[in-house]
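Figure 2 data, in text form.
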Amino acid sequence: MATLAAAVLLVALPAGGQVDLGTEEQRAAGKIVYDKYCGQCHGDTGDGNGYATPRVKPKPRDFTTGTYKFRTTPNGMLPTDDDLRRVIEIGAPYTSMPGWPNLTSAEIQNVIYYIKSFSPDFENPDRYGEPIEIPRPLESTEESIARGRVVYEEQGCAACHGEVGRGDGPSAPTLVNDKGDPIKVADLTQRWTYRGGATKEDIYRTFSTGLNGTPMPSYADSLEIEDRQHLVNYVYSLGDGDDPNYGTLITAVYSEEPIDLQDGETLDALFETAPMTRFPLVGQISEPGRNFFPSVTSIEAQAVYNRDEIAFRVRWHDLRADTSGRNNPSLEVPMWDEDNGIGDDGGDSDDFFGEFGGEEAPAEDDFFGDSGGDDFFGDGGDDFFGAADAGPPGAEFSDAVALQFPASLAPEGTPELKPYFLYGDSQNPVDLWFVNLTYGVADTFRGRGSESIEPTEADIVEAVTSYDQGQWTVTYKRRRSSRAGVSFAEQQYTPVAFSVWDGFNRERGNKRALSSWFYVYTEPSVQPATTFPIVRAAVIVLVLELLVVFLVRRRARRQAAGEEAAGGTLAATEAPAV
């Protein structure tokens, strides 16, 4: 019976191959693995609607459509088994799709057979194609990169990916897949986030096959192979590495110069002397207001100080500047918004989502948070974003950022006890330097937990902000000594944590991207002199060498004298008697 079932599912391909859908036993074995590891997100029937789906961005793959993004096959074709195996083994970076290297080769193959059973397309020989050929990458010369830049402009890549590739193109906020679900354009400057792989071969494959079901086209017909290779070199040049090289320490460097936030040129020159560290950001998932997959995944930080003041500069990428609306670290997030606007929270309201915490859910499950309209952005108006007074999508909340420090440090010589990293706790409070980017000024808060955040004016913190081609830059300044908070002494390690809110994705309050605790090290203003210790060490070594030489020579002379005396005695003894 199994042999007959396998024979029925082997269909001749035009190229003489076969459609391999496995046996009933293999698909049954695959179902066991799928139900254990995959169904929570992809759904019991493979339609992408598992019970975890409401808290996942981007939405899980709907296997019933037969549409797959990451393939080696031509545009519109089904993936090979090797393509599916690769995604299962290594996952998709910076999404909810993890890799499953713990599965055996047989288990993965059986899962592949079972996944194929969700779509009849896998029984259609016309949906298969031979994998494309991927040539050896061209050398990344200045000429090749320059030609790639021309191709980038000619093909209109900046419309989505932005002029410098940070994912901030004018079309980026509007992009959806073929099911109407909003999707995030790739940030070409951060290769480690590429879901299809970060090598030149991976990038070439994406340009040649396109991403089925998305606005990302295939350039196999519109660009010659060599131009695709030049485009690969240009895109590859936009990033600073295949790995984010996350760090754990900000080194605050000393300067005699004044820190003037209004003198941008001098301020930039000052920070050029300070090392930059990139820190990872993750979603806040521990307390109400959870954010399972924030759009901002890392932040860069530097610090400088002089005798009286200290300044921090932080940078991160954002597809657009949301500088209208409100934001605050203590804003309450309704339960429905933890589920990306999907699902009922059990309230008594008559609308689909109910009502929670005084903030009514939008009447439609759209990505941008607009309510009730008939057009894509929710308002049905004649202009691009709906009604003229509605503002752009997501305008209800602004972008924001905060630095977090312990309100006080443990006395020297006692064990360090850092506050709870989620806004502190009742015994160990934290100070927040919060900037709502609608206004671009710093407000200070004292946190004793997520439910106890109060404004404080113990210290004045200044800030300047700017947004340029997909990148936010925020520079803080405060006196090094504090009346009621942490002071920054030389040669001191001070805990620091970060929070970033993306207004476009309705982040506010506890719904945010955040980091764990890291450290700021305030290096000494006067570096120990190195010349004298080197000279002293050299003199000591020289004296020791001379002493050793002297002792060796003295010992050699004594040995020689002893041998000579012994020889004379022997000669006298052996002389004949007269």
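Caption note: The longest strand covers residues 309-317.
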